[in-house]
Specification:
Mean pLDDT: 87
Distance between the termini: 44 Å
Oligomer: single chain
CATH topology of the largest domain: SH3 type barrels
Number of strands: 16
Order of helices and strands: EEEEEEEEEEEEEEEE
CATH architecture of the largest domain: Roll
Number of helices: 0
Helix content: under 10%
Shape: flat
Low-confidence stretches: none
Number of domains: 3
Structural class: mainly beta
Radius of gyration: 21 Å
C-alpha cells in the first residue's frame, strides 16, 4: 500500500531501496523557504543498518504488512536460538542478534511472535513484560530512604535493573523487557 511521505509514523514497516525498514523516529519540519518534509530515522530489518531519510509530501513510499506467526522458544544453541512453530511443531534456528538485547529475557517455553516477510523471519517479538528473580541487590544507603531513590539489582539472567529500596535478593519481580525497568513485584 503506497502512503505519502508525511503519513509515515513510528513503527511503520516500509519498503525502501529494495530493503525492508522499520521507522524508529520521525520529525515533521516546515522550513521558512521550500516545502515541508518528514525527517525519518529507519532501521533495516534484514541487516541492521540505520539511516535518516527526508520524505516530502509529494513522495510516496510502499508500506509493508508483515505476516506474524506464533512460535515457542526452546533453547540456546551457541549463537543460535531454537524456536518451534506452534502449529506444525517444526523447529527453526535463528541467530541471536535477530532478537537483539531482549534475548537475555528469553526463557525456555516462552511464547514469542515472529514477524515474517517473504516467508523469512526478520524479527522476534517477546512479551512486553517478564518475571525474573533478583540474585543480588545492593543494601539501602542510610538517609536515602526519604526520597524515592532506586538501587541497582542483578537479575538471574545477568541483566541489571534499578529497583525500589524495599526489594531484596531472592524476590521475583516483573520487568519491562524493552525498557529494562522494574514494573512491580510478581504475584
Amino acid at each position: 500500500m503506497k502512503i505519502s511521505g508525511v503519513d509515515i509514523r513510528p513503527g511503520n514497516i516500509l519498503e525502501y531501496e529494495r530493503g525492508i525498514w522499520k521507522v524508529a523516529k520521525i520529525q515533521h519540519t516546515q522550513p521558512g523557504k521550500g516545502g515541508a518534509y518528514m525527517q525519518v530515522e529507519m532501521k533495516n530489518l534484514q541487516d541492521g543498518r540505520k539511516t535518516n531519510v527526508r520524505f516530502r509530501s509529494a513522495d510516496t513510499v510502499e508500506r509493508v504488512r508483515l505476516d506474524t506467526k506464533d512460535f515457542q522458544f526452546l533453547y540456546h544453541d551457541g549463537e543460535m536460538l531454537v524456536f518451534m512453530d506452534k502449529d506444525d511443531y517444526e523447529q527453526i534456528n535463528l541467530p541471536a542478534d535477530l532478537v537483539g538485547e531482549a534475548a537475555a529475557f528469553l526463557q525456555d517455553g516462552m511464547d514469542v511472535t515472529l514477524e515474517m516477510w517473504d516467508e523469512k523471519p526478520i524479527s522476534v517479538a517477546l512479551p512486553d513484560q517478564v518475571e525474573a528473580t533478583i540474585v543480588e541487590a545492593d543494601a539501602v544507603v542510610k538517609g536515602q530512604t526519604a526520597s524515592s531513590s532506586y538501587k541497582p539489582a542483578l537479575l538471574d539472567n545477568g541483566v541489571r535493573v534499578m529497583v525500589p529500596p524495599h526489594i531484596e535478593s531472592g524476590t521475583r519481580i516483573v520487568v519491562d523487557v524493552y525498557e529494562r525497568t522494574y514494573v512491580g513485584k510478581a504475584n
